[in-house]
Design brief:
heterodimer, A: alpha/beta, five-stranded mixed sheet, B: mainly alpha, 0% strand, globular
Chain lengths: 346, 381
């Protein structure tokens, strides 16, 4: 049902965009990007996030939004407007997130959303970059003696119904010709309780959430084991509307700038000291040389502002994900065995 | 038949002697109600034991073994290991101490949180004033308008040197109170009109419209109305036009509440004897005079219990707005619980939330009982 509605929505949106296209040229005197122009006039980036996922976007006790997704919003805002404080966090749910983006209620979505062909093809959206390479994992009790997913033939597994996790487990077990009994529980607190009380042998969802849950158990965390097997790919990324390539570029290159900064050892704290650097890559990145910012329709100091506001990609990770007890793994830089590789800024 | 007849002569003479000891007082009551037979004595003892055990267990958990504060690291991260170790044994009220402002006021800027706090006080004051019959005059409408505008200015800011706070940052108790108060305040008059329209005999088109509206809204769950408002509605709007999310949810709640209230009011209208209508007509009153002076006062009095029932229901239903990304009191509780150090202390948070909800709902039901008593004085038999 939802699929039907959303693809219908896509068609409707397409119609609206064609309408907008008629009046387009007159409005294209600014940066050539309707979204970026709107952002600049408004003085605010409307960034859709969840607001209830620890490590990604969750208000702290003072109500300030913290997390990887929240910092992604801040980074893009710093690039577009020079001031990360001009971000406006718009809470979206899993159901209304895509509509919010399609209808222009938000400028971008940074809401631990998996990049899939279906979403890009059907919904009129584009994934600009991946800020977290996640995957479906299993959490078991150490006392069970299970060390790998392959040993779990006939196991009972607690899983949330209707999620991509459920699909991934079904595929995995079918592929490996094993059997399992799913225990479907909707509520997250309830599912965790069921797992701890021993109603199921394993608890399965995104590995990041499992690690966070394990970490939340405090002293009892050592009794739980996150299996090394990751059985599906869940690249979580920042999403924009199709049809506004320049805005897409801004979001994508914001990531590239943060990755480059990490490669070069530029951090939030020491970015000022690099302003006198002689490295041409750094000079171009920080806007001392060339017109990289202008090419994006931004200020030449855009990347400097991003680093000043949120730091490089590694700092973002250390600030938000490391406290959850999740190792960086494949989310590391390509030079350290990870997947984060930025094209050159030149 | 004849044994049941008590004649005057069968009552012993002697005037107002006190009944024999053991027939009145708490002991007698206990004896008559709790220990009057074998079975009831056993049931009383068993239940008494269970209640006592549960109460002792709860007090032990909630107070004696409870942990009220936890140490914080230099970075401000709470160290909850003492709570984790005491789990199942004692409550960890430190979670409330750490998160109460987030739960009550959501993401509202921390330094400005006196504003939503003042709004909550204004709301409660407004309820108290409206509840007192002394204030039931035309000026009450004025008080409502002034207070509600004050609440909006306080929450939104941008005027009188208050910092502007967009409503995406509102959350917690103020959202619940705004949705419930505006919902009921706007839905109630609307529902009276719809109920009257549905009973109309002279305006078939209006009647049809009212029937359609009520049946359509009653035919779908509140969640789907909210969904329409938040997911479908923006797609029908021209690009770039966005109606505020809170307003959309508020309108959905009003429309939904009005349909239900309309049926309650209609029940009251139908229960009035026909003679009342005819008498009013005979006096030559116009339709609006008849309705306002004769019919509605009686009809509404009759339906106070179901009305309050619906009010209470809607006060709690406002928590459904979480599905469209608005953070009311209950949702903020859940958000506070997502924080990894506190994830396993949901019981404490839910108990605290339950106390707030019970406070409001109990006040409503208590007040309605008092109101019923007061308005029903003339009919006491």
């Amino acid at each position: 049902m939802m699929r039907l509605i959303t693809s219908g929505a896509g068609a409707l949106l397409g119609g609206l965009m064609m309408l907008a296209g008629v009046t387009g040229p007159a409005a294209a005197q600014g940066t050539g990007s309707a979204t970026l122009d709107a952002v600049k006039t408004r003085g605010q980036v409307l960034c859709g996030m969840s607001g209830s996922v620890p490590g990604f976007s969750l208000p702290d006790s003072q109500g300030v939004m913290r997390g990887l997704d929240a910092d992604t919003c801040r980074a893009v805002t710093a690039a577009a407007l020079g001031d990360a404080a001009k971000v406006k966090f718009v809470a979206t749910t899993t159901q209304n997130r895509f509509t919010a983006l399609q209808s222009g209620e938000v400028d971008m979505l940074s809401r631990s959303t998996t990049w899939t062909l279906g979403r890009e093809g059907n919904l009129g959206l584009m994934f600009a970059w991946v800020n977290y390479y996640d995957g479906t994992g299993f959490l078991v009790k150490k006392s069970s003696g299970v060390k790998a997913a392959k040993e779990m033939d006939g196991a009972t597994i607690c899983v949330q119904p209707g999620t991509s996790t459920e699909l991934a487990i079904n595929d995995y077990y079918r592929l490996n010709k094993m059997k399992f009994t799913p225990i479907l529980i909707q509520d997250q607190a309830e599912i965790q309780g069921a797992f701890l009380s021993g109603r199921c042998d394993a608890y399965s969802t995104d590995a990041s959430a499992l690690a966070t849950f394990r970490f939340s158990q405090g002293p009892k965390a050592d009794e739980l084991l996150l299996l090394p097997d990751i059985i599906s790919k869940e690249p979580l990324g920042a999403v924009v509307r199709k049809g506004d390539d320049k805005w897409f570029d801004v979001v994508r290159w914001t990531f590239a700038a943060m990755i480059t900064a990490e490669e070069k050892g530029i951090t939030q704290a020491n970015v000022e000291s690099f302003l006198t650097s002689t490295d041409p890559d750094i000079r171009r990145l920080l806007g001392i040389e060339g017109d990289m910012g202008k090419a994006l329709g931004l200020d030449n100091k855009w990347a400097f502002n991003v680093i000043k506001a949120v730091g490089n990609l590694g700092e973002m990770w250390d600030r938000n994900i490391t406290p959850m007890g999740v190792p960086r793994g494949i989310n590391n830089l390509w030079t350290k065995g990870g997947l984060q590789y930025a094209p050159p800024l030149r | 038949m004849s044994e049941t007849v008590v004649t005057a002569s069968s009552i012993p003479a002697g005037g107002n002697k006190a009944p024999p000891a053991g027939m009145v007082g708490p002991w007698a009551w206990l004896k008559a109600n709790l220990f009057n037979s074998w079975l009831s004595t056993a049931t009383t003892l068993l239940l008494g034991y269970l209640i006592l055990r549960a109460a002792v267990g709860f007090i032990d958990w909630a107070f004696i073994h409870a942990i009220w504060t936890v140490p914080y690291s230099a970075k401000g991260v709470p160290d909850t290991s003492s709570c984790q170790n005491a789990k199942e044994v004692g409550a960890c009220w430190a979670v409330i101490g750490d998160k109460y402002r987030l739960i009550l006021f959501g993401r509202y800027p921390y330094e400005e949180q006196w504003r939503p706090a003042l709004c909550v006080v204004l709301f409660i004051g407004l309820y108290i004033v409206s509840a007192m019959r002394r204030f039931w005059r035309k000026e009450l409408a004025l008080i409502w308008i002034v207070t509600l505008s004050a609440i909006f200015i306080l929450m939104g800011g941008g005027l009188f040197g208050l910092k502007e706070v967009q409503n995406d940052y509102w959350g917690g108790l103020p959202i619940t109170l705004i949705l419930a108060t505006f919902g009921i305040a706007c839905a109630f008059p609307l529902s009276i009109l719809v109920a009257l329209g549905r009973r109309s005999t002279k305006l078939p088109a209006v009647k049809l419209l009212c029937v359609l509206y009520v049946e359509l809204i009653r035919g779908v769950p509140l969640i789907s109305v909210l969904f329409m408002a938040s997911v479908m509605f923006p797609l029908f709007m021209p690009a770039g036009v966005n109606i505020d999310k809170l307003l959309r949810a508020q309108i959905a709640v009003i429309l939904f509440a009005a349909a239900y209230l309309a049926e309650v009011v209609r029940g009251g209208l139908q229960s009035l004897p026909k003679g009342q209508y005819e008498a009013a007509d005979a006096l030559g009153l116009s339709y609006w005079h008849k309705t306002g002076l004769i019919i509605l006062p009686q009809a509404l009095k009759l339906v106070i219990p179901p009305l309050v029932n619906t009010f209470i229901g809607f006060f709690k239903d406002t928590s459904l707005v979480l599905i469209i990304g608005l953070f009311d009191l209950l949702t903020m509780g859940k958000v506070a619980l997502s924080d990894p150090p506190w994830q396993s202390f949901s019981t404490e948070v839910y108990i605290a939330l339950a106390i707030i909800y019970i406070g409001f709902c109990f006040a409503m039901s208590n007040y309605s009982r008092g109101l019923e008593r007061e308005l029903g004085r003339g009919e006491r038999r």
